[in-house]
Specification:
Layout lengths: L2 E8 L5 H8 L2 H21 L4 E7 L3 E4 L5 E4 L3 E9 L2 H6 L14 E6 L3
Antiparallel strand pairs: 1-5, 1-6, 2-5, 3-4
Protein name: YCII-related domain-containing protein
Organism: Brevundimonas terrae
Length: 116
């Protein structure tokens, strides 16, 4: 029986992949992005039957603590989507060699079941 899984792409914005990205010229970033966007579109087409919700990139983050204080924070969360798969392992394996890891500077994908 298939289930839905939330996939969160992660990226250490202070890590080596982002340092390499920032070291590129604007033209190099644009060309890498062009290649990456096409690769992501091809991945999405190849996995269209498994994609429940395409999600998208995540922007700046605010956190409200239990004390009611709102602060700006930087986290590893970069992109999200929801997929459907026959098993937890199958859901995770959907993201092997995903283009967000190359050419884009994501460094992992966390996959978790959507409960309830």
């Amino acid at each position: 029986m298939s289930a839905d899984y939330l996939a969160i792409f992660t990226s250490d914005k202070t890590g080596p992949k982002w340092r390499a990205w920032r070291a590129m010229s604007e033209a190099e970033q644009a060309e890498t992005a062009r290649i990456g966007v096409a690769a992501v579109a091809a991945w999405e087409e190849a996995h269209r039957d498994a994609i429940v919700y395409k999600g998208g990139p995540l922007g700046p983050t605010k956190r409200i603590g239990d004390d009611g204080v709102v602060t700006d924070v930087v986290n590893l969360l970069t992109v999200f989507m929801v997929v459907r798969a026959d098993s937890f392992d199958a859901a995770a394996r959907l993201f092997e060699d995903h283009p967000h890891m190359n050419p884009f500077p994501c460094d992992g994908v966390e996959v978790m079941p959507v409960l309830g």
